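User: Run a structure prediction on this.
Assistant: Running it now.
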Amino acid sequence: MYCLKHQRIRLIFVSIILFIHLKLSLESYDIIEFRNFVNKKCSDLYQKKTKNVEKLQKYFDYAILMFYSEFYSYAAISIASYVKKSVAKEFDVIIYRPCISTYGKNKVALKVFRFNKLTNKFLYISRYSNIEKSRYSFNGFIMSPNYLCKIDKSFEYFLVCFFRMYKALACFSRARDNTRDSYIRIGDVSHGKHTNIPRRFQIFQLNPHYDLFHNGFCVRMHSEIEIFEENTINKNLMIDKFNNLFGETMCIYSGSYSYYIVYNEKYETYNNKISKKSYKLNLKIHSINLRHELQILKPIYCFYMRSRVSFILKNIKIEYSYFNKYEKFSAQSRKFRIVFKHSKSIFELNSNFLSCIVKKFIPAASTYICILRETYFDIIDLEYEANSNNFKISQIKKYNVFQTSSPVEFSPSFYAQEVLSIKDFLDMLFFNLEINF
């Protein structure tokens, strides 16, 4: 809440500085060049915000769990249950550690094992360094270094030995486990898709005691899940699914378990007169968070889910659309519209196309820019020069969405002596600002 409040204050402060101490150049700009500039800015911003998300599976779960290191046998039982009951067939086991040469800014990935499920009772365990070697043949026979293991006490014992090794590695490296760069990842790679969720989309309620604790280790797990009805997902369903996968009792002190649903739509159409683009990404996250106060002298052996769970629902939408109708006459008669939407932030460049994306307000000019940031938005009216494709800014109006009072109007002649181009102005007003979810 403090960061969000600080960000809002920063946005208001930036707006005040811009509107009081800066002056937009009164020079004119070519509308076609400016349209192409804005289109590239919005397209690049969409690609940046959706990077690595478009490659994700449509339905998958993601767990971030912090275990007590003394009781790794409990962790082995829970993780073995997750691997057995998951619909995924292949899992990669990877250890992450901070890179010493970059002073912890980057992390190093050590690929260790691959679990290949044959049935719900048996799986193959392969050393990761030998996976590629197992694909060559000699005299017609397939060379395979896989070890067959039954998914019961044998597999649990294997995980116990692995956690012992991991605990020793953590002692030698002197790197405490946390959710950022020191953890174990057990991920689904069944269809060649690695579920690498950007950190900004991960749900985990950080706490100094939970995130960095010398007596624990962190495990991340993710797998494809079966298709289900979204309207049936609630807190009780998430708890039941979690208990079914991991068991009702666990020796953990912090964690989260989430369902991710990814909708990704893209289409582009071109003909002699009209060009259309529409990119939409909708990411729905249903998550339960497990937390309790850490008791140093009395570690919690059994963690009862229902009394210590919070439920979080997030619906993240990112959109980019472009419409352009070619005209043989002047640029003033052109119809085009460029829109970028992200959470509570919207950018729109509109020329002779429908109404403003903020329905409550009507711009005075037929060509304008609308910028929405949470509860504040600006409408920048553009005025064409006579018999020309060039334009200049005529006025700027600043609104508060929740207030019915008249907007504050600014004229370019009101600004101080410093001069900014309209491109720099838009960068400072929208494109270079951080967008929160």
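The first helix runs from residue 2 to 21.
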